[in-house]
From TrEMBL:
Binding site for ATP: K38
Gene3D superfamilies on file: Phosphorylase Kinase, domain 1, Transferase(Phosphotransferase) domain 1
UniProt protein name: Protein kinase domain-containing protein
Protein kinase domain ranges (all copies): 10-262
């Protein structure tokens, strides 16, 4: 049948992504703005659980206000097809940027790290956990990151646990407590932020690549590879990658520490999992 030319008030321009549950389109809204439309695939939309997950995603992203998180403009989990609409985030994924051009120079890296920390802090300030902060979910345009994909996001007040060995998120960036089946917390997002910035700094996931079991074992044992990361950023990342969630400072603290006046020897501030 092909792509419908419109979805609600939005004129679809073309498909820009496709996953197991949803299709993503570039589009123009009723005000002439370029936007992104995510719609559930027809076979998935028939599942009430999939609609509930989309409703959670809509509710979570609607609460977040940050220049580094695309604003949710519209969304209906009860529509046919169910969809959400967000502001367009230009650029390319951090994963592709680093793979194609290598790590950014130190001053650009610091600004990227700080702005992404501000994005994560805004998510937490809204009472939301992202649960999938990773290089593939960070769009970069110039020096401006945009944290995208709230498909796994949850209200921070709702306890979410996983069975040990069950992976929810991007494996190489999961916190050890999540891998072990514990609840995701703000500290888990902080760990993922630190792992993402370590990747940006080196071009390597800090716990390596390869079979899932091996990556998870290295994360749980706390053996991060930060070779090549310059100080004081390396010290900050070690704090963010601490094996114990309660010892990781908050995303807001990291944003302050990464401000030009704050880039000295790292100390500890308010923890993300207090």
């Amino acid at each position: 049948m092909g792509t419908p030319p419109r979805l609600g008030a939005h004129r679809l321009l073309g498909e820009i992504g496709r996953g197991g549950t949803a299709v993503v389109h570039s589009a123009i809204d009723a005000f002439g703005r370029e936007v992104v439309v995510k719609r559930l695939r027809p076979e998935i939309a028939a599942d009430p659980a999939a609609r509930r997950r989309l409703a959670r995603e809509i509710a979570a992203q609607r609460r977040v206000r940050s220049p580094y998180v695309p604003r949710l403009l519209d969304g209906r989990a009860d529509a046919d097809p169910p969809y959400l609409v967000m502001a367009y985030a230009p650029g390319c994924p951090l994963s592709e940027l680093v793979a194609g051009h290598g790590p950014p120079r130190p001053d650009r890296l610091r600004r990227l790290a700080r702005r992404l920390a501000l994005a994560v802090a805004a998510v937490h300030d809204a009472g939301v956990l992202h649960r999938d902060v990773s290089p593939g979910n960070v769009m970069v345009h110039g020096e401006r990151p945009a944290l995208i994909d709230f498909g796994l996001a949850h209200d921070a007040a709702e306890a979410q646990t996983t069975r040990p060995g069950m992976v929810v998120g991007t494996p190489a960036y999961l916190a050890p407590e999540v891998i072990e089946g514990g609840p995701a917390t703000a500290a888990s997002d902080v760990f993922a932020w630190a792992a993402t910035i370590a990747f940006a700094a080196t071009g390597r996931p800090p716990f390596g690549r390869g079979p899932l079991e091996g990556v998870c074992l290295r994360i749980v044992s706390g053996t991060a590879d930060l070779e090549g990361v310059e100080e004081p950023l390396a010290g900050l990342l070690r704090l963010g990658l601490d094996r114990e969630p309660r010892r990781r400072p908050s995303a807001r603290w990291f944003a302050g520490a990464l401000a030009p006046a704050g880039m000295g020897a790292p100390g500890r501030g308010r923890c993300a999992a207090a």
